[in-house]
Write a structure and sequence with these properties.
Length: 160
């Protein structure tokens, strides 16, 4: 009797262990990345450092910590000065530094916004290039409507 139970137990375990279990694997869905185009760059491709100019900051103080070996603050300042005077960088104005998503975090561009409409780009990509541009304008027409009730108008005049 004990042999029968042991054989039945071993047989039962081996039969249940041999069954293949169906595993449902969800197909992978590719993420759709919507490009964020600003200043002529797709910001999804860069690490963006955003800050504002603080009191006592100079162009050299702002850009020097982000440069890698072989890049010169002096050359960058000269190139930018040809388009926009580095002495006109004002406290409280925003700037962005676009860095490549690589191990060095190599800077690709310095973007300064002197006004809400204008911006200045210093591109470090292949060679130093600086240029000024404007944000695209978008006109939005807004209207309001309402009814002026004669009774309300009389009440308003009485208060004066």
């Amino acid at each position: 009797m004990k042999k029968f139970l042991v054989i039945a137990l071993v047989l039962g375990i081996s039969l249940t262990a041999c069954k293949e279990k169906e595993v449902y694997v969800e197909p992978e869905v590719a993420e759709v990345v919507v490009p964020i185009m600003q200043y002529g760059f797709d910001l999804n491709n860069y690490d963006v450092v955003t800050d504002t100019v603080k009191s006592g900051d100079t162009f050299g103080n702002i850009i020097d910590p982000h440069l890698v070996d072989g890049q010169s603050v002096f050359k960058a300042a000269e190139e930018l000065d040809a388009v926009y005077s580095v002495r006109r960088i004002q406290v409280g104005k925003p700037y962005k530094i676009l860095k490549r998503k690589d191990s060095l975090g190599t800077p690709e561009a310095f973007i300064y916004e002197p006004t809400k409409m204008d911006y200045v780009v210093l591109n470090f990509a292949d060679s130093l290039k600086a240029y000024k541009d404007k944000h695209p304008l978008k006109f939005v027409r807004k209207t309001a409507s309402g009814v002026i009730n004669l009774h309300c108008l009389r009440q308003w005049r009485k208060k004066d």
